[in-house]
Inverse folding.
């Protein structure tokens, strides 16, 4: 997923690092693009867990809390 965000130039949006020289309008547009890219790559069951998140960084943080831990259940879901 991170590779897709890097390829599309949206990694900074997901990590929440807004460049100072970027307008708020442009930042919001990039956030919408990043949000849609991540949502389109998720399965329906995972999407249900994060559907209410309105920003790409909030969605990304939620995914990390759900699936970045090294538990057996998370490894099985990722496989």
């Amino acid at each position: 997923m991170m590779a897709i965000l890097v390829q599309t130039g949206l990694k900074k949006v997901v990590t929440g690092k807004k460049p100072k020289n970027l307008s708020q309008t442009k930042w919001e547009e990039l956030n919408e693009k990043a949000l849609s890219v991540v949502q389109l790559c998720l399965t329906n069951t995972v999407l249900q867990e994060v559907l209410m998140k309105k920003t790409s960084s909030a969605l990304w943080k939620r995914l990390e809390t759900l699936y970045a831990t090294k538990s057996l259940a998370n490894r099985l879901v990722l496989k």
User: Anything to note?
Assistant: The chain has one domain: 2-78. The mean pLDDT is 87. Residues 1 and 32 are 16 Å apart (CA to CA). Residues 2-78 form one domain.
